[in-house]
């Protein structure tokens, strides 16, 4: 699922994203360019340096995960 970044994701917001991902047992990958990171890794999320206007690929088929990410208000479809 492609998502657009609405807000910068660093420090506190990255921690919120990782906490949301850790609510699920599924493997959740975030892909940006040539990077592919585990959404449960704070260091990985920080390394992506997500900024408004970026597009990511959320590699999951679980709609609950997609909803949880959208509820953070960091992303839009």
Automatic annotation (TrEMBL):
A matching Pfam family: PTS-HPr
Source species, domain of life: Bacteria
Limits of the HPr domain: 1-77
Protein name per Swiss-Prot or TrEMBL: HPr family phosphocarrier protein
Species of provenance: Metabacillus lacus
Source lineage: Bacteria, Bacillati, Bacillota, Bacilli, Bacillales
